[in-house]
User: Fold these one by one.
Assistant:
Number 1:
Amino acid sequence: MGITAHIPAELRAWQPEFDALRHDLHRHPEIGLHEVHTAQLVAAKLRAWGYTVAEGIGGTGVVGQLRVGTGAKKVGLRADMDCLPLTEKTGLPYASQTPGLMHACGHDGHMATMLATARYLALTRQFSGTVNVIFQPGEEGVHGAPKMLADGLLTRFPCDMLFGYHNWPHLPDGTIHLQAGAVMASSDRVRLTIHGHGGHASAPERTVDPIVVGAALVSSLQTVVARNVAPLNAAVVTIGSFIAGQAEAYNVIPDTATLYLSIRTLDKQVRQTVLARIQALADGIAAAYAATIDCECFQISLPVCNAPAPTALAQSVATRLFGAEKTCTDFAPVMASEDFSFMLDQVPGCYALMSGGLNKPYVHTSHFDFDDALIPQMATYFASVVQTYLHA
């Protein structure tokens, strides 16, 4: 039958309202850790539906809590709130009104989905236990999840299981992807600053050329994955920038050069191995060329790893709603990252990837837009997960 046949009448009736809400969020994006008006809107909606609301968690984070019946079990649902520093080029009537900012990752749709879920659960109350609806700031590389955790998120609002999702264009239309184990990669940024000794281009023997050192390092870094990571594991080491000298300085050897790296892995141990090998190569090449290299690592996220029990529950719900042919339980993980991983590192949960349209623009591009049809579909999914786990 497919998911459409399972969407409750209330969610069908509310779709125009939640589409409009999503468009309003899209029109007024806010960058990570500055989601002031977004958080106020979310908190007001939750209060109106009867939730106990806590604001300012980890800065601008919001949690709505709803207790029904006498059940002791607790479940958490999470959505992200921040936008990206990107100029929108969609030409939509609800395009961003804030220059240089846009919801290019679908967080506006994730919020609308969780708000629709929250309203439906508050209206129907077909469960016994506690639901914590978590709206997280600063997902895009600024550690919003760790900030909420440090502010006592899971001690103030304990959860047995956590659930969330990301819309993902280029997956087959109408498919939902859920599997135990890794579904998204960790992300680390590494800055390698090479300190040499500059001079005149005509006398390179009097210098320690950081460009030559950097070139050797670029070549050697290609061996980290090829020779230190098992073929059945996955890792990415990408050099995004190599900066040295001044533009059009033909006859000057600079003092310094800097490499900027992006590291992706699907396993904590592989992550540690990759970072250790980068440090070792930097130390060895620095010694070989009589230079020094500062190696600075900035952790963005852990791998997103789904736990077996919540994943089994989510898969059973998804199979019933979407159909077995649309529920994918064995797939290649996405090498993008998500800081929901920090929450899943403390509480077992399941993070789903839902098709945002096979031929739609990709996330993090200026032409991306969230598919409104996902709001009632995924709200039905999350409400069913809650009702299944917290069955009366």
Number 2:
Amino acid sequence: MALEILMPALSPTMEEGTLTKWLVAEGDVVRSGDLLAEIETDKAIMEFEAVDEGTIGKLLIPEGTANVKVNSAIALLLEDGDAPDETARPAADAVVKAPTIVPPPSITPLGEKLVKSTNTGPRIFSSPLARRIARDKGLDLNKITGSGPRGRIIKADLSNKNLTGFLTPAVTSQVSSAQPALLEASSIEAIYEGRTYETIALDGMRKIIATRLTEAKQTIPHFYLRRDIQLDELLIARSKINKQLGKRGIKVSVNDFIIKACALALQAVPTANSIWAGDRILKMKASDVAVAVAIEGGLFTPVLQDAEDKSLSHLATEMKDLAERARSRKLAPHEYQGGSFAISNLGMMGVDNFDAVINPPHGAILAVGAGKKKAVVLEDGSLGVATVMSVTMSVDHRVIDGALGAELLQEIVNNLENPFCLFA
């Protein structure tokens, strides 16, 4: 009997992906470990390996197909003596259009309870994914007509609905009293009728960014701490280090100093090296520092693990490799997930200062501005000129209180203004 090759879950958060490219053709003989396809998740393009041996009988999903659900059949694998099954097809709701509305996360907990409580009438035929979406959005499945086989409710039936018409009564009341009315894409487009614009479909990465950052701003109680840092000693040290490292083809950046300074600060203030885990706080032992890397259409935050134990040259080499692979979307999930603290540096783009959004479950993120020559008051009271960099630390108040955050930021400032302590 032919075996179904299923769309794999290549990361813990993956629910669907794009089958970018087939690396095999129908009739090819494959062995365990052979590469079958390239699959784009919300974060990266990854290679998918065969688990079983056999002959590729049929490719069910064309390459380039987006929104292919995890665990849906994408190909058939024939074992010895098997004949191709021409009737095999992917599930009816395996590939669907992207939703046009991103619902507000604030209705999720209430919606979850209400959908469960309404499941007391006649049985409602719906796919597991449709039931989960209904739970998350607070939708009443009794009000929705399914378009799947035998009237089964599938994801497509929930993706294009006006939320206010299908919410459970209590959720409708909550949304109307606590939030402004939600507009469908068609309603927004109507506002700009007669104006020229280009419609850009959301890819998986942009959907995840929108969801996570909306969640972050709505659920994380941010507070902000700001400091100016004098960089002159650091720039002198960097110049001397790079003269020596140039022989090895390594160049240390200011950002590498910042990574090291933050890693050591987290060790000096260990209580701040923590993350929010829902009903508890996880206090981390190692300093795993995430660094935002801009890529086309979004960003990655690759994580440098055990950064406190690594030399500046090691951090520079590792960061360069991670950034290059992030831009080509070749990072593995374990390389961009985790960490307790993050750094976002827009100084190289001339930005003086900004406030970064915390990437959950991190406890804080440091926003780094440009280093610029400024007039300063020297220790002897006279006026002088120094290279000053402005930083803002966004802090999750559930994890780190104000005084503790100030202590952590002071350690970061001390490390950067006295860079030779980074080698001690």
Number 3:
Amino acid sequence: MTPVALYDACVLFPPSLRDFLVWLAITGACRARWSAAIHDEWIRSVLVHRPTVLKASLERCRELMDESVPDSLVTGYEALVSGLMLPDPDDRHVLAAAIHGDANCIVTFNLRDFPEASLGPYRIEAIHPDDFVSRLLETSPVSVCLAARRQRELLKSPPKAVSEHLATLENVGMVQTVALLRPFADLI
């Protein structure tokens, strides 16, 4: 069964991780979900940490993500937010979107913000992106390699060799994934 994953804002910045996660959905390794609020959150984060980036280019990226991944944009979840309990109330919209979007996991770096006790009743788990992609490699290695290859092929300024591309993914926390991808370098 193809996993349905809600991507938390923290995994949509840095751009190399965001692009890889989107490509995983495009190639069919998973079905990705996010919300307008999640888009707003990652865009705000980019603008704070990289003030030279134009907001218009980030909005264009948002549009391309929504167009490239069918059924990715979760709407209509807002009524669920107030009834949810999480350590940080500001994260309730993420869980609400995951529930309404029929996700079985939330891909996030902030695992402590989504405890099993809060997610378990909805049969949703919080998972680190490295663990998420490592699992995908077990069930859909061709789709994951294709996602990595398509992402790498689009890198033109400058183009990257496979080893450079894998190093970039490793630098954004995908250490286990990169170790598992190295034997498939010919496919990337």
